[in-house]
Amino acid sequence: VASDNVMLEFRTPYVESAFYQKDCNRGTAIYYDFENSKRLWEKTYDYTINSIYKFENVIIMNKETHSFILDEKTGKDIWEFDHYYQFPFIDTKSGKCLLYRPTGNGNITLRYFDLNSHKILWKKNMPQVSTCRVAKKLNDSIFLLSARGIHRININNGEGWDYYAMKTKAKSERIPVYGDFTILWSGTGAMMSDSTGCVAFASVDEFLKIDNNGIILWADTLDKKTTDYSLHLRHDTLFMLSYGDADFGQYEPPVLTAYHYETGKRLYSHSVGDDRMTINTFHYNGNHLLISFANDQGPCMMKLFDLRSGEPIKQKTWETNLFS
Questions:
Q1: Which of 136, 195, 271, 306 makes the best surface tag, with the fewest CB within 10 Å?
Q2: E strand residue ranges, 171-236
Q3: Residue 176 DSSP class
Q4: For 25-50, what is each residue's pLDDT tens digit?
Q5: Measuring CA to CA, which residue among 220, 171, 216, 223 is closest to residue 198?
Q6: Higher confidence at residue 183 or residue 82?
């Protein structure tokens, strides 16, 4: 169900002090009715230990030890979960969601939960996974989940097949597990799916294309220093843009790489900036890519690239580091 309401969050700015000021972590969430120009409710909370999320007409608030469903019109608690949960996917049309309890020990249990009946529909144990990042619904029965890789799950029962790709600094090994499920280990990464159900996935050191059955169609080795990617498919070419600043502050140049989507052939790979330039935003338009850069040691810049060659066409700079 779509909602015409909007959630606004205001946070008290961080203030450096010799003494810890808890008020510096206070935030206020205001729920506003756009159509009738009316403030419905507001909540004040410590945003370092609490969080509040809006999924169309579903409002979830995570407090210190438990998660709550809030009434959209009043902001009052209408359901309390038994623990604190994370919600990588909520389908507001069906009223169902994925949730898991963070454990910190590298093993979680994924649950599919009915928000209306408050019942767990199925559970799935996920060994060697400690967090889930992004979920994308492909159709009425299949969705993709990013959790140290990609998970392809049947939404009706959580079953299927698995593919494991374990990555370490010393070696790479693959361990087959169970069912309709795909897991590719990575610290950071990106994924996209096409109309046939194939998935392209960039992990820490590999770029893969996988078909509907979990079979790798092609793979390419990546530099571990250039993680955090964005993927963009145009016709038969897949573009991978590395942001250049993913490795815990160890700057590397941002890189644009193009692949032939069917064969995996690398068409070109070019640095699009130096090692102190990180990408703020970017926009694809036809055969062009526009990138804005931040530079903490010099001017900010925007560059326009020709996607057919990966070469820059023109650029503009601003003598400030306050550009956004």
A1: 195
A2: 172-173, 190-193, 199-202, 206-210, 216-221, 229-234
A3: -
A4: 778 889 999 888 899 999 988 877 88
A5: 216
A6: 82
Q: In whole angstroms, how far apart are CA 190 and each of 3, 42, 184, 204, 214? A: 29, 35, 11, 10, 17
- Write the CA distances from 275 to 122, 186, 255, integer angstroms: 47, 23, 10
Q: Which residues pair with 216 in a beta bridge?
A: 210
CB count, 10 Å around CB of 297?
9
Distance between CA atoms of 281 and 275, rounded to whole angstroms? Answer: 17
**The pLDDT of residue 283:** 93
Beta strands (DSSP E) in 63-106 are 67-70, 77-80, 86-91, 96-100
274: tokens are 């130096």
Task: Find out whether 303 and 290 touch, Cβ atoms under 8 Å.
Answer: yes
Long-range (24+ apart) CB contacts under 8 A made by 57-64 are 57/1, 57/2, 57/3, 57/5, 57/92, 58/90, 58/92, 58/95, 58/97, 58/115, 59/7, 59/31, 60/87, 60/90, 62/86
